[in-house]
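User: For a benchmark we're assembling, each entry needs the component sequences followed by a predicted structure for the full assembly. Here are entry 17's components. Please fill in the structure.
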Amino acid sequence: MQAHDWIQLAIYLAALFVLAPVLGKFMHQVFSGERTFLAPLLGPAERLIYKLGGVDAQREMRWTGYVVALLAFNVLGGLLTLAQLMTQAWLPLNPEHLPNLPFALALNTAVSFMTNTNWQAYSGENTMSYLSQMAGLAVHNFTSAATGIVVVIALIRGLTRRSGDTVGNFWADLVRCTLYILLPLSLVFSVVLVQQGVPQTFQEYAAAKTIEGAEQIIPLGPAASQIAIKQLGTNGGGFFGVNSAHPFENPTPFTNFLEMLAIFVIPAGLTYTLGLMTGDRRQGWTIFGAMFALFIMGFGLSWWAEMQPNPATGLVSNMEGKEVRLGIMNSTLFSTITTDASCGAVNAMHDSLTPIAGGVALVNMLLGEVIFGGVGAGLYGMLVFVILTVFLAGLMVGRTPEYLGKKIEAREVKWAVVAALAPCVCILLGTAIAASVPAGSATINNQGAHGFSEILYAFTSAAANNGSAFAGIGVNNDFYNYALAICMFLGRFAVIVPVLAIAGSMVGKKIAPPSPGTFPTSGFTFIGLLIAVVLIVGGLNFFPALSLGPIVEHLLMAAGRTF
Amino acid sequence: MNATLNPPTSTPAPAPESSRKKPTAFTDPALVRGAIIDSFVKLDPRTQIRNPVMFVVFVGAILTTIACFTDPSGFNIQVTLWLWFTVLFANFAEAIAEGRGKAQAATLRKMRTTTMARRLKGDREEKVAAGELRKGDLVVCENGDVIPSDGDVVEGIASVDESAITGESAPVIRESGGDHSAVTGGTRVISDRIVIRITSEPGNTFLDRMITMVESATRGRTPNEIALGILLVSLTFVFLLAVGTLRPIAQLSEKLAGQSGVINVSLVVLVCLTVCLIPTTIGALLSAIGISGIDRMIQRNVLATSGRAVEAAGDIDVLLLDKTGTITLGNRQAAAFIPAPGVDEKDLAAAAHLASLADETPEGRSIVVLAKERFNLRARDVAEKHAEFVPFTAQTRMSGVDLTTPEGIVRMRKGAAESVRRWVVENGGEYPQAVTEAVEMVSRSGGTPLVVAEQHCVLGVVQLKDVVKGGIRERFAQLRKMGIRTIMITGDNPMTAAAIAAEAGVDDFMAEAKPEDKLARIREEQAKDHLVAMTGDGTNDAPALAQADVGVAMSTGTQAAREAGNMVDLDSNPTKLIEVVEIGKQLLMTRGALTTFSIANDIAKYFAIIPAMFLGLYATEAGGKGPLAALDLMHLHSPQSAILSAVIFNALIIIALIPLALRGVSYRALGAASVLRRNVLIYGIGGVLVPFIGIKVLDLLLVALHLA
Amino acid sequence: MKNILQSLRILLVLTVLTGVAYPLVVTAIARVAFHDAATGSLVKKGGEVVGSALLAQKTESPKYFWPRPSAGDFATVPSGASNKGPTSADLVKSIAERREKLGKDAPDEMLTASGSGLDPHISPASAKQQAPRIASERKLPLDRIENLIELYTERPQFGIFGETRINVLTLNLALDQPQ
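Assistant: Structure for entry 17:
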């Protein structure tokens, strides 16, 4: 923990603080239908898309209409990708002549990208054609990110609108999000990535003769364009197998810095958008504050743990699975950020992290990916916790709870509970099933407590739509491909549907004017309470499982035990 | 209306403290005995399943009981006993909360069933059972009769003893016409004769409603209770899942550790973990909290038509209060004598004193008091003066006295300015301009002028002033802190109203308000999304009472008013509204506090049970302690004593918290932020720490008693 | 049904936009502005491609600096990591073997496999630890090797980001350069 590390951390945090309001304000303009500075350039494109797509952008939808459109769009997109992956050998842009994917892997991958998870049971270099990458998976990187964002926008509309029963137009939100936010950011980011050394070409893989005369194949492809959106959209699916640890995917410390920033910038910006949409910026900063505090706590713990010597291996610095150019601080920071957000890109192997750092990554996901979280998903997840917090706190001050002036009643509590607990059910049931059947533990890569952590991590990552892995475990088999596909699907849509239901039931409610008797949902007391609810409601269920995974492994490591 | 006959509003309402002196349910042995019996009756699975959280414990207890037969170890038997105790404690909490209501309902029901009515058929009277009376029937009640059903007095006037319902022993006057015409079934006429038109169908009388209310507070769950119920059931479900999935996970871990037989995931232990994790504390006490909230209302002689109304009271942020009786004392008091030109103030005082001696109204009495204070005038022997008192009538709008003196009859009158002016002029006197001015001045300053005259000579003006109740200003300041705005309603002119509003410290006032203005104002506030509470008694108030989110009708009021409101205050004390709001808030707070406490408890329980289950996992030697022993922060004696202590703590905390559930958490009128901080500190942080201590103490006890 | 047709149309439009137009635009910019960087940062020696400046390659000859261990033995399609956890007996064994091979004073990063399996860098300390071997194999004075290490040491980017490091391939090519 040298000064050099602290300076990098400080620059990162400062950049986040500066960019969140800038982007947040811009996103507010986009979703309130205001004219943005990009309008002269993209306005005609937007109108053209509406025309080609047959969208009446002015027609508002009730929450049910929004859900149906969203599900139809996502599921159909997933099915098309499934078909594409299973036929890629016959499609163009396949210079390496990669074969069609088998059904189980294709299904797992299609669901994975559709749900913004980007769990990868494959390595891109030897599995995916250029077309599958750019016109299949990367398209999902845009649309799944946009889906997450528009859901939270619909939710905030539900929480803040004073009249009506509609929450927006899904198609218009989707198009505007993609066109004005995701595409321009990705374009700029990908050019910087190329400049730093990330490949962007349709050439076939290059061949080299090493200085010792051996053959080396150098994998290439349209990587930069996909990596940009994979970070910005908190997708995380690497173009190459080892993701952002790969020198082509993350060639310099500067790209590493930008990739980390790209993960958080939209989720952090959305908190500011929330503030603007509620008309009270403190509401946004309060959520930002709670997320930020949880992030810093997790990172601090991780970093500390990674700096401790390991009595089991006798190593002083834990460089297993890490890259020299990035070092321990940047690897730990990345691992915290990528699991706080439901990104799942990795620049170091999480499987080789110390039990506490790996445990922090695990807990970040177990809490429901609400620490900035996935684009949109993090904020709507956090708002679900806000609703539960407000409910508990409202009771404690003796008033029917309300958030932003709207009453929280049985219906909202019911949906909030479903949204908060759906991933939880997937994780617990999935892990238990994997622990019971031979296929579940047949492919683990580590023995002892760490082996169990690999299983728990897999189901957690899938249900939380993260996509990172304790990657030693072999998951390209029927059991994991199907089981995790189910978890990913439920972890995504069993949260989105209740969230939109909350939007629908809140939108028609009256907004009570605030008074001293109203429980304040901004400020430090609320931040503290929200954090407590996230940790207790989100985490308490997992204490037994965690005690058999990272907790006991940490104690074993301290005792110098190996397996 | 006869101004001398309005005792109901002036009967002092019992202070809330007095009702607290009633024995609490916990200290009344008869109630406790009944509750203990009920605790066992409630073991019926059909009753249990209504409370899903406790049903899980119930099923757990059955499972461990079965386990006792296959493996009757001391541990299993003790666990089983304590699980049954947990269920019984929860039943007891509910039973004791219901107890008082049940007793009260039994008394009321007895009263209802035995009453006979004297129904009028034309001129004839017939005896019928009270239960056969229909709306619109006319019945006669005379001295000693129990009024058979709710109704309006259509003929006569009588004193009525309403103590059966209000607990207040002083009789009240009920008469036909006006705002004091309503009578309640079950009360007793103790003088005179009245004819009553029945206004309620059988089964829907006030008494019926009261019985339903007190005995079945559990039946209708309030929206808030439902919402909390959903949260608790979901938590229960997910903890069940967490424990249910633990067995395969633990078995895999054992395998990965290369060990066998070192973990304890037996059914009994898993049941223990489940019971400790699910929110049993709040689950057991939830219905007791709701019942006791309504019970607290009843103890304060407020009858709510539904639990929903009680809850809504906690959300009120605008209070509409009538000035008279709520903010000011029901009656005005004499404040000054303003003599007419050429009249000595003392003469004015003497005349006013004389004219008021027989006037039993508070205004009259206050004149006597003022005269005594200012000029030391005492009640002379009026009989010696051959005085004849002239009572107030609606026609004359004056009262006074006729003195037979050697010089002839001297008439003294006091009354409204216009009436006295007419009387003086009729008697050939003059009404001086200065008096007119004095009258105007008094009116402008927020007072009421009474003009005093002797024969044809105007002596001057007595200034009557509203007297703001003691402590009301502080009360309003508290309400403001709680986020509740008070609006004073008065028929006074704006200037008078402003003066009183400033003195009382209300936030806003409505002057020259007509009843329909009240309704308009409520709608206006509701349109701004405020929740409004008000009190009322007259038929005029009925629409506003119905419109208000919480409408408290005075029990002395008309039947129309009583039916329009969602609460009836049997004491007819308008200030009670403030207490109603507090009870509503307290009810919600108690639920929130115990929920927080219940969930926070889980942390310590984990630290007791998890290391106990996995103590041997990854141990280096057979039978040794593995690394997870580090989680045993409390250094408990053995795995068995640890689990047992957690289960016992879980059961005992229910009993320990019953008094809190019945009493409600202590309530302070503070802003939401400070209330929250306080409750989080006590019930959140406290909820984390208390079980650590409790479980450790129990563990030491178990060891000392050789039970583990 | 209406939603399905609508979905198809929008999917098609967005696929063309984000899946075709966008990568083509980026590729076009890359081709014009950053051709070498966009095509794998290939390194040539005498016209022959000897590798990528960004990827480690297997180097076992004692004449060369060795890169960090690769769990996938420097395979590129795909590359990989050990994914061994901190209590892994296999990891302990690997570390012991590497320590055996590289010497007791080998820095931790030379004892552990990299994340990508293709980590192109080692720390200056690792380079210095290997310097005596190179010097003796190549029969060159040690200080010349150490000067070369100094020369090829990369500082944190912009003075801020990342660690001080040395690219093994670049350094090895420099070793092979005639004076």
